[in-house]
């Protein structure tokens, strides 16, 4: 869980740094951050559900995977809502004062961002569906 939190903080800090360097000019910047954001949020919830919420030992793996991916998508959707609110409240001020373009794109950008969050979460679930098999600590 500590590793997931560390990487989520790192993704967040890189995203905040992107506002200052004009990340909207770098095409893959947003793609990489959303993919890894979905991946590490899924890692966090995978660890959380494994250690905190025990559930039934007979629960199917598909059900657990669906819950992990859904939690990651929920966090991604909340991030998009936060971007929208930030743009509405601070967008003009940031542009007029610092020439920083904040924060959200159009509907296509939002859909792509959510698809990348989903892809990252599914990648985590597929890669670590049985962490004990590979002797990995997730």
Structural features, described:
The protein has 4 helices and no strands. The longest helix has 38 residues, at 61-98. Helix 3 packs antiparallel against helix 4 (107-127). It has one domain (2-130). The chain has helices at residues 2-21, 27-51, 61-98, 107-127. The model has no long low-confidence stretch (mean pLDDT 81). By secondary structure, it is mainly α.
The main pleated sheet reads as: none
How would you classify the quaternary structure? Answer: single chain
Q: Work out the radius of gyration.
A: 17 Å
Count up the helices. Answer: 4
Taken from the alpha-carbon principal axes, the silhouette is: elongated
> What average pLDDT do the residues reach?
81
Q: Helices and strands, in N-to-C order?
A: HHHH
Helix content: over 70%
- Report the span from N to C terminus: 7 Å
- Measured by DSSP, the beta-strand proportion falls in under 5%
């Amino acid at each position: 869980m500590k590793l997931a939190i560390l990487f989520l903080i790192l993704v967040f800090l890189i995203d905040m740094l992107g506002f200052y360097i004009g990340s909207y000019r770098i095409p893959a910047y947003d793609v990489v951050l959303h993919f890894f954001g979905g991946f590490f949020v899924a890692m966090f919830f995978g660890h959380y559900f494994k250690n905190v919420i025990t559930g039934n030992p007979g629960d199917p793996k598909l059900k657990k995977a669906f819950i992990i991916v859904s939690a990651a998508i929920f966090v991604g959707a909340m991030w998009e809502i936060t971007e929208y609110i930030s743009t509405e409240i601070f967008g003009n001020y940031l542009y007029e004062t610092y020439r920083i373009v904040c924060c959200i794109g159009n509907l296509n950008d939002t859909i792509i961002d959510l698809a990348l969050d989903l892809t990252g979460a599914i990648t985590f679930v597929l890669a670590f569906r049985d962490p004990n098999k590979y002797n990995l600590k997730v």
